Amino acid sequence: MINRNDPRPAYQQVAATLRDRIHSDELAPGVKLPSTQELEAEFAVSPTTVQRALQTLKGEGLVVGRVGTGVYVREQPRAVLLASTYLTQGEGEAWPTWTSVARDAGMAGTQEVTQVGTASAPSAVANRLGVDGGSEVVVRRRTMFLDGQPVQLADSYYPRDLVEGSPITRPGRLPGGTQAALERLGVRFKDAEDEVRARVATPDEAARLHLATGAVVFDLLRTTFDANDRPVEVQHAILTADRHILSWRLPVTAAPTSGPM
Amino acid sequence: MINRNDPRPAYQQVAATLRDRIHSDELAPGVKLPSTQELEAEFAVSPTTVQRALQTLKGEGLVVGRVGTGVYVREQPRAVLLASTYLTQGEGEAWPTWTSVARDAGMAGTQEVTQVGTASAPSAVANRLGVDGGSEVVVRRRTMFLDGQPVQLADSYYPRDLVEGSPITRPGRLPGGTQAALERLGVRFKDAEDEVRARVATPDEAARLHLATGAVVFDLLRTTFDANDRPVEVQHAILTADRHILSWRLPVTAAPTSGPM
DNA sequence: GAGTGGTCTAGACCACGCC
DNA sequence: GCGTGGTCTAGACCACTCA
Predict the structure, then answer these.
(1) Which backbone phi and psi does B29 adopt, to 5 degrees?
(2) In chain B, where does DSSP find H-type helix?
(3) Out of A33, A78, B7, B30, which could bridge A71 as a Cys pair, Cβ 3.0 to 4.6 Å?
(4) Which of residues 221-240 of B touch A (CB under 8 A)?
């Protein structure tokens, strides 16, 4: 029952009560909530108020509605631990791939190349790639899947003069990945800079990743530099936040290092 | 006007139209939207439908409502670029501090120590600190502010036997930061592991960070290891996503794989 | 006091899943 | 066919801001 003296709106009280039941496992993952009509009766509020409370919980990713059946406590999807530490490792024959990372988490990782060609560089990419905003760059767009579900949109951008005429500009799998292909072009890698943002998915991203509106995504930019500190690749990835944990390993020295990192 | 043949619900059509106007700068940041009554008339929908569309946009962080005045396009708050070295928390001149990081972004960074003492270790912390779940550990809790606004909750945990009797267990500022204090106890740092998640703020976090419900936060865990690979510190930080960009710099020595990480 | 956003109601209709 | 979640309406009230 709702407390009319509580300063919080009724729908927030309903949401808070249900949230407590979920967190206390009184409503365990996968369990069906009482029907909206039952909730109306229990809390003595109108249908609209119940719906609004449920909408709040849906926005928080706690429950999912399935019309015709009921509203269910969301099963926590298993997440993939995406480590970047392998980049610092030396020589090895088998490099971690999306497939192997997913297998480590007990899932099936696949990918699909959706576009290879040239495109006008988004300003964030152009800045980091050291080209004029809007100028044409080479782009490879991929979608990554976990157990058949799209979880990641990964776009890689390259300076046109660097990769022109190479296999990178053509569709199809690159043996050893794009980085190996760049090395065959004479590129010597030095280091990379990651920038990570988190935000709500745009409607376009939500549609392509099969997400509810309001879902949280990582927005990740990786700029890779060669031995001359020239940026040779910018990767821009959108990752569903509930299926990825990002991980970095970094040295800690007693004496301060100079410069960032 | 709403298209009744469009399969999308009316409130989503209204939201999409307003979203387009915002992204096209027809409604620039800071500008006041038409009043809800005007929107009702323009789209020929009921008040509730307009409210639901606005609620959707609020959830996306695109607009903010101020009762009594209007609904405004949200000014994009300036974000702080948080390099990975920051969390090492030195206060010496060479280590980046919260104050210096904020100053680099043109803002005032302050912090407040909210609690120093012992607490039962949350399971995620206990795991990483190598102690039994629920056992007592030493904790230092801080809140970080940008221009007076709380933007970060940072809790640092230490094994009890390691820091017992040291200044770390007592309130007050630590000259040189906790890292220097640990070094004075004989700790030799080796490396650290960061784990980054992104999710919606819990109601408690939202209240402490003055966030709207549904706001996105980073959930960051840093485990620092000494030369013997013993975990000596676990930092758990909640950061408002729209005011932080996280950054890492990592060396690349050979061809990595196809994934973004 | 007028206008504003925010909340709530009571009732209706629809598409869908299941029996 | 019935129960389900999801959507929508028309109207009401409240707290707040600002002139």
Answers:
(1) -55, 135
(2) 10-23, 36-43, 47-59, 98-104, 123-129, 160-163, 177-184, 203-208
(3) A33
(4) 224
